[in-house]
Design the sequence.
């Protein structure tokens, strides 16, 4: 299952905050957690960010600076790195919007 969050405006800090659960919906307290973010870049390319998450109370968090992305659909996942497959994981996606200060536009035809 993919969690739909947002939308967010490009340039904002996006806080990804998750709790990991086992198959019986019990809270998992792993020794670490990772997040993988796939985001749009110029010329239809895709960028990737992989990072360790920080435990704050019972939530694993990561703050992503969305300025490195172009507007569009951002997707990713967070997981516990222990075990194979991981003990727990979650997929997410959101829309990153442009604003007047950072809107992107292309002139297709000047004729």
Sequence:
């Amino acid at each position: 299952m993919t969690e739909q969050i947002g939308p967010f405006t490009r340039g904002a800090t996006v806080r990804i905050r998750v709790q990991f659960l086992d198959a019986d919906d019990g809270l998992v307290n792993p020794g670490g957690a990772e997040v993988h973010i796939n985001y749009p870049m110029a010329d239809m390319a895709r960028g990737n960010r992989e990072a360790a998450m920080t435990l704050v109370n019972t939530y694993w968090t990561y703050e992503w600076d969305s300025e490195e992305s172009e507007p569009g659909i951002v997707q990713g996942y967070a997981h516990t790195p222990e075990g194979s497959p991981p003990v727990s994981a979650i997929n997410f996606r959101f829309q990153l919007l442009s604003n007047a200060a950072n809107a992107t536009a292309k002139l297709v035809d000047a004729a």
